[in-house]
Write a structure and sequence with these properties.
Strand content: 15-25%
Shape: globular
Order of helices and strands: HHEEHHEHHHEHHEEEEEEHHHH
Largest sheet: 4 strands, antiparallel
Number of strands: 10
Structural class: alpha+beta
Helix content: 40-55%
Number of helices: 13
Radius of gyration: 19 Å
């Protein structure tokens, strides 16, 4: 898995068509995600649970930093002043026109239904989640001995060495995957994202993305289940599902070349 992911990363770059970290500000990130919760409920798609998008609060962030006696890199501090917390979960409306059209599609039938998969199983694959933790929740999870991600993380290695489980903080739990941030050499929490696959043969990989880049790609992908695997490796089945399904499910959205188009 590690070699396949490395091959995928070498062939993919975050395209230059979207803003750099320095220009992703509170208005763009918070407003974009706030707009997302207004536009996702549409013909054929609905929210599973009430969505949450929390605006940044400089005073609350300063209190958290002081109260927990933590240090943040400039990049992580900048991200947390742009967006605090997100919880968005969407799925197909059963028996909607969109669901019926997808079920009848030749690509769906050839790749899934004719292979023995039920449409109810595929309905889960063609869904999405975004669940970003605030800094306090990240710290509480890190300090909880029984935090779910730790059991898988202890079996992972970086450059052949066992992982320091306590150095990783969960940012998002996503359908068997966990996006993590790590303490850097100075002891400060960094905004660089690592991805943990915690089901069967756990593995850990540096996504080579900042949190600002991660949440931008998640926004573009609408939190499509396992979008991270499609980003890391275009040979992953998720890539084909996203390329097929997202334009049909969100026809007015524009999805970036870093997800859909081959790099030069």
């Amino acid at each position: 898995m590690k070699n396949a992911l490395a091959d995928g990363l070498s062939a993919i770059s975050v395209d230059s068509g979207w803003s750099s970290d320095a220009t992703i500000n509170a208005m763009t990130v918070y407003a974009r995600y706030s707009d997302l919760i207004r536009t996702i409920p549409s013909e054929g798609i609905q929210m599973r649970t009430r969505p949450v998008v929390v605006a940044p609060d400089a005073e609350a962030l300063a209190f958290e930093i002081a109260d927990w006696s933590i240090h943040l890199t400039d990049g992580l501090h900048a991200y947390l002043t742009n967006l605090s917390r997100v919880k968005i979960s969407w799925h197909l409306v059963p028996d909607s026109a969109l669901a019926r059209a997808l079920e009848a599609d030749a690509w769906i039938r050839s790749n899934y239904l004719d292979q023995g998969y039920s449409f109810s199983f595929l309905d889960e694959l063609l869904s999405g989640d975004m669940a970003y933790l605030d800094i306090g929740s990240m710290i509480l999870e890190n300090r909880a001995p029984d935090a779910g991600y730790k059991g898988a993380l202890q079996y992972c290695k970086i450059d052949g060495q066992p992982v320091d489980v306590g150095a990783f903080y969960p940012f998002e739990y996503h359908w068997g995957l966990v996006a993590l941030i790590q303490k850097d050499a100075s002891g400060a929490l960094s905004d660089q994202v690592w991805l943990l696959q915690q089901e069967q043969d756990p593995w850990l990989v540096d996504m080579k993305l900042t949190l600002a880049q991660y949440v931008e790609l998640a926004y573009r992908a609408r939190g499509f289940h396992h979008w991270q695997l499609a980003y890391l490796n275009r040979r992953d089945p998720t890539f084909a599902r996203m390329k097929f399904a997202l334009p049909k499910m969100f026809p007015t959205a524009t999805f970036g070349e870093s997800i859909f188009e081959p790099s030069p």
